[in-house]
Amino acid sequence: MVSAKQPKDEVVQKKTQTITSLRLQRSIGFIVALFLLGAVMFLSLMIGAKPLSFEVVWGALFSNADSYDHTIILDSRLPRTLIALAVGPAFGLSGALIQALTRNPLADPGIIGVSAGAAFAVALGVGVFSVSTISGYTWLALVGALFATIIVYIISGGAGRKSPTPVQITLAGVALGAALSGITTALTMMNSEAFSRMLNWTVGTLERKSLEDLWFVLPLLIIGVLLSLAIAPALNAIAFGEDRAISLGVNVGLIRGIGLIAITLLAGGATAIAGPIGFIGLMVPHCVRWFVGPSQPWIFLYSLVVAPVLLILADIIGRVVISPSEVPVGIIMGFVGAPILLILVRRRTASRL
């Protein structure tokens, strides 16, 4: 009897050790990611058309001295760094959330039409109503993102008794996104003034942004983060299939509805400020999943930290690659993100949900 129990005890012990080791790895990795985020934020304050020393940056942040270098830091580099710290997690988390909801590792916020809805609303406001302020862009983008989400939900069958499936949501989002993108292009091409105003926004940039731009949407981004973290455990159950999740007491329709609201707030708010920056929501969850495994709470937490690290690094590269001019961060993310994503997609462990 003792000899029969012995193998079972060893299996249980090995599983416990594996779980403990994985938790320790995730915790240490998260702490390292936080330190890395702090380091790249400081580099963002130091590097630009005019490089500044560590001492100058430190003095600008923690002393009352006033100089031209301090003005550069406080009025230009600090706001764009803090905005990256806000929109980076929003893009990354929204990507992780839509991948979890649709069980599609190649999904991102654009796949359900959120980015296209935001761009359509901004183009309509600029071309028809002559909106020219950042606050106007912000609210238009949010309304457009919400409009796209609602339409996708209705088209995919959400108005009926049954909640729409991930495939239905994906197909409806792709179709609506294509239609809105076409209309947006037509609006901007017919209005030269709208085209020139939209050009800088559509490529995705953190240049010439102020903290006042962030205050409009920061509460919505925070709500989106809290909603995402709240439903993360339930998404673990949904990953095994809806029937299994329902048997475990998960209200799949409610979780999916909350998820769509969170995606709208996160992707819509971030797009409103910085424009439709691509690859973050698609690439970051892949990188994170490769390290932490399929646990959605950990994927979400890591996405909140890793996404701004990548965005800030891309912004730094954009400042110096053709200095003294700048390359918008959206273009840099395209150049950097595409090859990295191809490498990750070829790894089965990174692509599996």
From TrEMBL:
Main location: membrane
Location relative to the cell: Cell membrane
Protein name as catalogued: ABC transporter permease
One GO MF term: transmembrane transporter activity
SUPFAM superfamilies to which the protein is assigned, alphabetical: ABC transporter involved in vitamin B12 uptake, BtuC
Pfam families for this protein: FecCD
UniProt xrefs under CDD domains: TM_ABC_iron-siderophores_like
Topology within the bilayer: Multi-pass membrane protein
This protein's UniProt keywords: Cell membrane, Membrane, Transmembrane, Transmembrane helix, Transport
GO cellular component terms, semicolon-separated: plasma membrane
Gene3D superfamilies hit by this protein: ABC transporter involved in vitamin B12 uptake, BtuC (1.10.3470.10)
GO BP of this protein: siderophore-iron import into cell
Keyword Membrane in record: yes
Record InterPro entries: ABC_BtuC-like, ABC_transptr_permease_BtuC
Transmembrane regions: 28-49, 78-98, 110-131, 137-155, 167-190, 214-238, 245-267, 273-292, 299-321, 327-345
Family classification: Belongs to the binding-protein-dependent transport system permease family. FecCD subfamily.
